[in-house]
């Protein structure tokens, strides 16, 4: 009987997101494939350091119990099985319950996302992420960070931007191409009751929200149980553009624990209090700032990234 993935939150993670591959990547760039292969074999038993997505992946997997497997993480790797063995040894060392992998030997692995029902692909390879987004796959590029995880904390805190991440970039396009703040606020007030379209990470957040509901049910049945997931919305929107956000999330039945409608206030100033284990945003200026303090993922989607595409 086939292993069923349709009832699970499936995350596809590249080894470059899960672990620190800076040294081995340097060997690959400077000395090419044969030297890289030798390096990985020679260092096979030297455990890789933790990467940007490690805190997220570790806590997601800890939601699973023997009775209920809600989350599946699958390794999608540009390595081949030979060079990828070092990654599996690191997975085993850290006690991560990841047993499935796809190795593609230098190709972009995102094309297998549909086959494994993945609602998110995280990678440290920006070109791979951009290509995935181009083909409408939900993907994010992990930015380097100095963050040090407190592993005694069991709660998982996620933070999401709204436009261009949870929902599409239609309203953001009005702001950037329709004359700025005042026309944008007028547009959002007039369309406050109109449901917004799904963005790249909509399905991922929707599934996180379903897991939260499951956890709340467990808490209601057993008040000694402590729910493990907390979700924050961190957006540059403020009133009057807030109403459409709330009504859209309500219509999609998505739970948000904390919401920051900042209207230009620096996002990192509130996130330093919230302390996310992961933050998703479509705008590089926000990511570059927050990534200094917390694991952050750039979603290179939509109008906010058009100039970046031109530069490519």
TrEMBL record:
This is 5'-nucleotidase. It holds the Pfam family 5-nucleotidase. It comes from the Bacteria. One of its GO terms (molecular function) is nucleotide binding. One of its GO terms (cellular component) is cytoplasm. One of its GO terms (biological process) is nucleotide metabolic process.
